[in-house]
Helix-turn-helix domain-containing protein
Amino acid sequence: MIGARVRQHRTARGFTMSELAERAGVAKSYLSAIERDIQTNPSIQFLEKIAAVLDIDMNVLLKDPAEYTADETAALDDEWQSLIAEAMHSGVSKDQFRDFLEYNKWKMKQK
């Protein structure tokens, strides 16, 4: 199951197996074994590397989407994750993000 999710996210991002393995710093043969469910128990370190390159939360690879609650599904929305990742990569700190949220709450109350 993990292998299928890795493959799904890899192809959705347009990476070949070689590209993902190189960017994540993992062996292509190991990645192939994971995707083909020959190796079914990858290490946390491996999953962290793969998830980082795919720009997703590692839990997306671990948990079957059918098991998500409605709240978790909303939390794992690809667009939200992409926006958060973009904010992080652009240098927005957690405190700055919290400040923005507080400002936005205040602004909404003013209407």
